[in-house]
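Can't paste images in this forum, so I'm doing it all in text. The chain is below; anyone willing to post the predicted structure tokens underneath?
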Amino acid sequence: MLLPAKAEVARQLRRYRAWERAMLAAPADLMVRATFEDTGYTLCVLMGKRCAREAVDAAERFLRITPTAYALEQDGRPRTASVSARRGPPRSRRRRFHAGR
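Text version of the structure:
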């Protein structure tokens, strides 16, 4: 999983919060609303989430913990003790073919 730079996440989160305040102050202003929605979309893409609220929550969490811990948390798969887990049939069932024999 590729993770964004913390500085970029922090910058986009600040930008989102600023436009959120502007949108709440002037909800009828279509330019402000469009820009607010654009910043939400940018945060969604950056954090890999489908809605702005989830992206904001993920960004805040990402900034609080280490990138490795965040990646493990987002992966959702349980980790096994063995990192080098093999795939495929057990060794006893593998057939070895030697050229010329």
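The two ends are 44 Å apart (CA to CA). The CA atoms of residues 39 and 46 lie 10 Å apart.
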